[in-house]
Write a structure and sequence with these properties.
Radius of gyration: 22 Å
Largest sheet: 8 strands, antiparallel
Mean pLDDT: 94
Strand content: 35-45%
Strand order of the largest sheet: 4-26-6-7-14-9-12-18
Low-confidence stretches: none
Order of helices and strands: EEEEEEEEEEEEEEEEEEEEEEEHEEEHH
Number of strands: 26
Shape: globular
Bound molecules: fe (ii) ion
Helix content: under 10%
Oligomer: single chain
Structural class: mainly beta
Number of helices: 3
Distance between the termini: 72 Å
């Protein structure tokens, strides 16, 4: 029978439901999975808060640590590697909006770690879904639902609540995370593009079940809950899911598989043409978060200023660079592992050198972005920058506005 919860599950396993949406969410949005495991996830001692004075990824709930909402263009030099910490302690909130306790908004993190999580530790965030964009190093992620190996130029999504452990098989890692406090990512609608193009569904990879048999050792379960860290002890591995099925699961995607679409006559489309994943608000077409990439691609438009136009956007734009040189910023200030933020209605555009070059370039077909991958987290929300992002990281470029704008 196609049952989810038999009276006695096979092999003495426990059937357990993992809900990613309200039970009654519309069918097209509903995300639930059934896990069949050696012991239930609930078999642990009570959580105790840990590192309460140092661990906080939700500074809006901490009045003495302000969030700064700024109209200026901001750009960061490459963020430092940090070999002294593990994944759990590598998360630095740079900017965000909203509040995970209200399941509203999002947070942008830089992660930099050099240590494996302890051999008997697992972690989950109750605050949101992690969209992880590695810039340096390899993440070996053992999740409850199976294993994911994620390298630069790939991304992964770890949904809220899924327990996992991160090890670093090739040493230090660094990258970007978008934590989505509300909703989930989905593929964008394709409209007139048709049934294929952009990120194709077939290229997303989900893990298959992988389990350990360990009911006899001391494990620590770590929870990021409202930005704070909690720990609970248990006497068995959390990685004991023997089988699962459903629609709520972690997954990865190779950005090299993105089918890039652009103009073959004149002008260039809005950057939404490069959307890999989107998380929509209740307003159709308006995203809490779009994940957009700028892969290597051909430009063939006639009589057109080919770089991104100068613009002001009602959406906020946070950009990062995985590798290479972004074709709209050739001045050298936007580097791999760095970032930029162009907030709501903050005017921006190509740097002066790029403008000069593109205005006079011979418009033959040309390939741009070879060996490069820039990305953007775009949000309908005005994002605020944290104390860490503005000051403590010491990476903000003080002269950025002068650099990009030319005379003023
Ligand atoms: Fe922009």
């Amino acid at each position: 029978m196609g049952m989810n919860a038999p009276q006695r599950a096979p092999y003495g396993l426990y059937a357990e439901k993992l809900s990613g949406t309200a039970f009654t969410a519309p069918r097209a949005e509903n995300q639930q999975s059934w896990l069949y495991r050696i012991l239930p996830a609930s078999a642990h001692a009570p959580f105790q808060q840990r590192e309460s004075s140092t661990y906080n990824t939700n500074p809006e709930n901490k009045p003495w640590e302000k969030i700064f909402h700024l109209p200026n263009q901001l750009r960061w030099d490459p963020f430092d590697l940090d070999e002294t910490v593990d994944w759990v302690h590598s998360l630095h909130l740079v900017a965000g909006n909203g509040d995970p306790t209200a399941k509203a908004g999002l947070g942008y993190y830089i992660y930099a770690a050099g240590k494996d999580m302890d051999a008997h530790e697992a972690f989950y965030s109750a605050d949101g879904d992690f969209l992880v964009v590695p810039q340096h190093g390899v993440l070996d992620i053992q999740t409850e639902l199976g294993k994911l190996l994620v390298r630069p130029n790939e991304i992964c999504v770890i949904p809220r609540g899924v327990r996992y452990r991160v090890t670093l098989p090739e040493g230090p890692v660094r990258g970007y995370i978008l934590e989505l406090y509300e909703g989930h990512f989905q593929l964008p609608e394709l409209g007139p593009i048709g049934s294929n193009g952009l990120a194709n569904a077939r290229d997303f990879q989900a893990p298959i079940a992988y389990y350990d048999e360990d009911t006899d050792s001391d494990w620590t379960l770590l929870s990021k809950f409202a930005g704070h860290l909690y720990a609970a002890k248990q006497k068995h591995t959390p990685f004991d899911v023997v089988a699962w099925h459903g629609l709520y699961y972690p997954y990865k995607y190779d950005l090299g598989r993105f089918n890039v679409i652009g103009s073959i006559s004149f002008d260039h489309p809005d950057p939404s043409i490069f959307t890999v994943l989107t998380a929509q608000t209740a307003h159709v077409g308006t995203a809490v978060a779009d994940f957009v990439i700028f892969p290597p691609r051909w430009l063939v438009q006639e009589e057109t200023f080919r770089p991104p136009w100068y613009h002001r956007n009602t959406m906020s734009e946070f950009m990062g660079l995985i590798g290479g040189q972004y074709d709209a910023k050739e001045g050298g200030g936007f580097q791999p592992a760095g970032a930029s933020l162009h907030n709501v209605m903050s005017a921006h555009g190509p740097d002066a050198a790029t403008h000069e070059k593109a205005s006079n370039a011979e418009l033959k077909p040309m390939k741009v972005g070879e060996g490069s991958m820039a990305f953007m987290f775009e949000s309908c929300l005005m994002v605020g920058v944290t104390e860490w992002g503005l000051k403590k990281c010491a990476k903000v470029q003080e002269d950025y506005n002068a650099h990009v704008s030319g005379p003023f």
